[in-house]
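Can you give me the bound-state structure? Components:
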Amino acid sequence: MKLAVALHQPLGALALDVAFTAPPGVTVLFGRSGSGKTTVVNAVAGLLKPARGRIALGEHVLQDSDRGIWLPAHRRRLGYVFQDARLFPHLSVHQNLLYGRRFAPRGAQPEPEARVIEMLGIGPLLDRRPGALSGGERQRVALGRALLSAPRAILADEPLAALDEARKAEILPYFERLRDEVAIPILYVSHSAAEVARLATTVVVLQDGRVIRQGTTEDVLSDPSVTPLGARAAGAILSARVIAHHHDGLTELDAGGARLLLPRTLHPIGTPLRLRIAAQEVIVSRARPEGLSALNILPGTVEQIRSGDGPGALVSIRTKAGTVLARITRRSAAALALSEGVDCHAVIKSVAIAPEDIGR
Amino acid sequence: MKLAVALHQPLGALALDVAFTAPPGVTVLFGRSGSGKTTVVNAVAGLLKPARGRIALGEHVLQDSDRGIWLPAHRRRLGYVFQDARLFPHLSVHQNLLYGRRFAPRGAQPEPEARVIEMLGIGPLLDRRPGALSGGERQRVALGRALLSAPRAILADEPLAALDEARKAEILPYFERLRDEVAIPILYVSHSAAEVARLATTVVVLQDGRVIRQGTTEDVLSDPSVTPLGARAAGAILSARVIAHHHDGLTELDAGGARLLLPRTLHPIGTPLRLRIAAQEVIVSRARPEGLSALNILPGTVEQIRSGDGPGALVSIRTKAGTVLARITRRSAAALALSEGVDCHAVIKSVAIAPEDIGR
Amino acid sequence: DRVTVFAAASLKTALDEAAAGFEAETGHEVVLSFAGSSVLARQIGLGAPADLFVSANEDWMDSLADGGHIVETSRRDLLSNRLVLVGPSGQKPGDMARALAGNTGRVAMALVDAVPAGIYGKAALTELGLWNLVAPRVAQTDNVRAALALVATGTAPLGIVYATDALAEPQVSVIAIFPDDSHPPIRYPAALISGRDTEAARDLLNYLSDTEAQGVFARHGFLPVGD
Amino acid sequence: MAVLGPEEWQAVALSLKVSTWATVLSLPLAVLAAHALARWRFPGRALLNGLVHLPLIMPPVVTGYVLLIVFGPAGPLGRALQSIGVVLAFNWTGAALAAAVMGFPLMVRAIRLSIEAVDPRLEQAAATLGASRMWVFLTVTLPLILPGLVAGAILGFAKAMGEFGATITFVSNIPGQTQTIPSAIYAFLQVPGGETAAARLVALSIALALGALLLSETVARRAARRVGGQ
Amino acid sequence: MAVLGPEEWQAVALSLKVSTWATVLSLPLAVLAAHALARWRFPGRALLNGLVHLPLIMPPVVTGYVLLIVFGPAGPLGRALQSIGVVLAFNWTGAALAAAVMGFPLMVRAIRLSIEAVDPRLEQAAATLGASRMWVFLTVTLPLILPGLVAGAILGFAKAMGEFGATITFVSNIPGQTQTIPSAIYAFLQVPGGETAAARLVALSIALALGALLLSETVARRAARRVGGQ
Ligand SMILES: Nc1ncnc2c1ncn2[C@@H]1O[C@H](COP(=O)(O)OP(=O)(O)OP(=O)(O)O)[C@@H](O)[C@H]1O
Ligand SMILES: Nc1ncnc2c1ncn2[C@@H]1O[C@H](COP(=O)(O)OP(=O)(O)OP(=O)(O)O)[C@@H](O)[C@H]1O
Ligand code: MOO
Ligand SMILES: [Mg+2]
Ligand SMILES: [Mg+2]
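Here's the bound-state model for the whole set.
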């Protein structure tokens, strides 16, 4: 089942005009502040009635302005996780979780309550009031509440933006589990490249109310022409698998035959992981460098070099592990005589792969 | 004139018990959420009356519980910049700026209005209402408002925390100018290592209501035993001076005789800068590496190696530019046979020096 | 000059007309304030700036006299009136007792312990042996005109008011007249207020006792004193 | 306080009954009106607002008179109600109606303010979870405005305890049936020497209303704390 | 609406005068009381709250009677005021006092709510800039509660326009001197056939009060917008 969205809505100076499809898995809506992300999600949720549009979830039409169809929010059965949780302050955590259940249609099969509570680790909180929860706990409960309403899709508008790093790290894994264990489309708004890398199966990039790019996460994030977040967001996603945990605290991964070392993760051996390697953390070398502290050295071939107005250049290097992006200075690119087809090495520090950039 | 603070105050489970001195310049109060930073600042401001304590600004006693002295907030003449700006919504920007002036004592010499407005770049905003300002503009006005009340010290409680990266980058320089141009103590709360690196002259580290470390910025931030922010916060501060702007978009700096290249900054030639080099961005090499894209290679000597439980080790390398910290894996440290006194090179990518880590 | 008169509510229509005559004749200005005699007496007792008080019974005038609030020498009975049982317009005249017994509806009266019309009414019913029959059904109002309104609007089927009230209100009909001897004689005593006995007030009091004004009152159904 | 006579006790009991019913019955309507004024945009909103405020603006005697004309035995609504067995005129039910009408604007104002303070984003959240407008109101808005609701109700109750002008005009002053505390006080004040009895009742009615008021502040504070968390 | 007679015009003019003065003079006191109830913690707070609410709770006639006893020519305060040339009883000034007293609780409630809505952090900010308690109130709190202040004032004004029971008891019903619109209406209702004249005045007084109410909502909305930014 996929979510198909096509909208037109004048918004102040901006005209929102988007069309995209969100397949099962996580579709991240990505873009600068003010680009229209929240507006799109609210339109999908039915909290806002766009001037024209067609929104359908599989066969189920939520809006079709041509045919005069518009379902109100409470009949759409979409689980919305808001940036600010919006838990009901007068209800306990447990009552919050069960809130949507009574409105679910008889036939609906919500996730079993026990499973959701276990998955989100909120068992110990059930009797508390939302006022007594930390920000991270609050968002987990909000997620649980949405799930237990037996939704046909999940909408999440920057659910982690209000949280500090520690809290973010606490919640991201729950969204991962959701993506992997629940087979409904998730539309997720974010402007964190790390979140995109960890969660997204599909990325839709918005700019000034328009979709400027739409595709798989690997494609979109490694496309240097997509700079809604500035050059610093560029990075490549590698798929890998845990093959060993070493005694000195490092975890070894296999990525398409190449070996990577990073600080120990808690994932058991065999777990498939997605790594985001930020382009600015990668050093390029023509010869295989020796005697460096960096442990990961991937041989490869230059696929493409793009440079803009600034001092930087973005080099894509095809390696066994996949395409790696490196942001270096134009001066270095010249000094190393890099050009398409040239052989080189991508040098990556183990410790430069940040914990929040490692996901399943 | 310096601010001397000694406080005791039970706070829920916590007992706040701190004593420190803030000399002119910026003293950053640094510590985890809940460690008591805001409570300290509020006590200094007089918004909270600690159970026991002595707070004095030079000769001027603000509180001395032993002698029964306690000045109410409005008689302390401290400029408080709040995290949430707290501009008066019913007054224009200009009226907000002038608010404190009428309460300043006859003798006080507030900063000249024109100079503050110019320094903060808020001239074009004067007639607007706070509601129509962006977050960054709002904090600048709040800073100006505090300055124009002719304060004897400035207090700032995470003034940038609510802002996104772009806004932060917009305001930090104003605090720098304040530090360099106004000769009063500034007590600044933050938990961003980058902010500390750019602004602080003195750092006071709080943990669970106690001061666990207090000293110059260089000392505190490069001390791996101080980990209120986790290992990733470790980094060294280098002092440098702009010596050239190159055509390919790079700026060349001189740091104690060593040359550094980084993406162009707007500072004119001759400007002294402080750079924070995050430890995890530094690669260590025994031999001088050749053919790498990294442009900055500083020769030096290993001063110290510290490792904890994890897979990482923190290497201090004494270079001409100053001490540089590198966070590498223990495996690499062993492979490179690093030990105290060994010669090595610190390899730093130009593009890895983030714009927010460069300050004056 | 200006004369301020506090007068019983039942005098409203007639006294308005008589006062206008006085104004035309003398050029003085008359300000009239009407309410239940009880309210007015209390206010005068507490210093209200009335020059002349016309009560609807002797008791309230007596209570002012006891407090020294009136000029005793000026006191005189101005008018008399009769008490009637009324019903909605169209009601046929009939026997008092039968009308009261034959209808189980409310009987509207002014406050039976305070307002003159109520006091007279209660006395008359008691005298006629009807009080016990009527008492549980009495609906009391703060003055006699309010009781009249209850009958006029059809809220109460019966009411006890002055004959003059019944005459003024086309929406009600008189069912029966209470015998004069069933209650203390209805008197409207008038007196000047102590310390305020101006020439104009004295003139007005005299004017009201005089034939011209008495003619006006008669036209509104009031009876001369001593009738 | 001296002991009250049986007639005075009757007045007290009646006043409590009348005020309680007036409050309980007008509360749902007040909530509805407050909700409409706070949240809905519809033509005639200003008119509704004015209508709700009328009893505050009009002299109570006039309000009573209007009630008499409309709900009296000869009035259009009065006749209709009578035909289904509801008698208002000269009945304690009529006193309750008068008290309810007079207290209505106060209730609506208090409740409206508390509705305006409810975060509409919580209501949106409830809608996305499947709750229809009605359910959103019952399960989210209503519990959240509880403090304001209680405050409004008790204010209305206090007002009802003191209502006089409209009551005596509409239902007269019949001991044991429509003689509320204020009517009894008024009657006492009219009789020479009645001041002591009147003062007794005044003190009692003030004590009752202040008690209610204190109760309302306590309940409101407690409800606010409950909603606020912990 | 038919043209009003001179006596009716007098009543209208008097009512406007009385209500205006009542509102203007009681407003500062209402602000003070509201501020104390909203922000200060002091012994006797509950008592003050009760006292403020008394006129809402007591039958208006009783309030008027109390005023008469205290401020009448024979009353303790009345005599003191009279010696400095201020006469309240049976004077339009007394009508203003009665109206002010009766409208007071409504004003205080409205203003108190708006004070409670002011972010105390703004007041703290003002204190750190050197403003004493008094200045904080004048330069921050007061401007921010303007909408509530206006709403409260107009509500008090509307109530004053309709006040009857306390007024007629305290100052009687003397045309041209103390006969306000409600007293005039009452007088008309006493006369058979006076309903038309009464209805005219009722309509006028409703129009005036509703106008004020509408004005208050507009002014409050505009002030809220001004404070909200842009
Ligand atoms: N009701 C409205 N009326 C007019 N303009 C609006 C309205 N709501 C939103 N906008 C404007 O529409 C644009 C898109 O807003 P939206 O909230 O969808 O952005 P966003 O991408 O979610 O931003 P952010 O990342 O800051 O949440 C913004 O420029 C915003 O100012
Ligand atoms: N009024 C209070 N009563 C009880 N505990 C309090 C109170 N105010 C603060 N605390 C507690 O005191 C501790 C210190 O709080 P404080 O706000 O000073 O921390 P902080 O260092 O400023 O944190 P943050 O970085 O989150 O702003 C926290 O544990 C907090 O929960
Ligand atoms: O005229 Mo009266 O004083 O109502 O009986
Ligand atoms: Mg948004
Ligand atoms: Mg804090």
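A couple of observations. Residues C 8-10, 36-37, 56, 110, 115-117, 143-144 surround molybdate ion (ligand 3) (CB under 6 Å). The helical segments of chain B are 37-45, 93-98, 113-120, 135-147, 165-181, 193-199, 217-221, 330-335.
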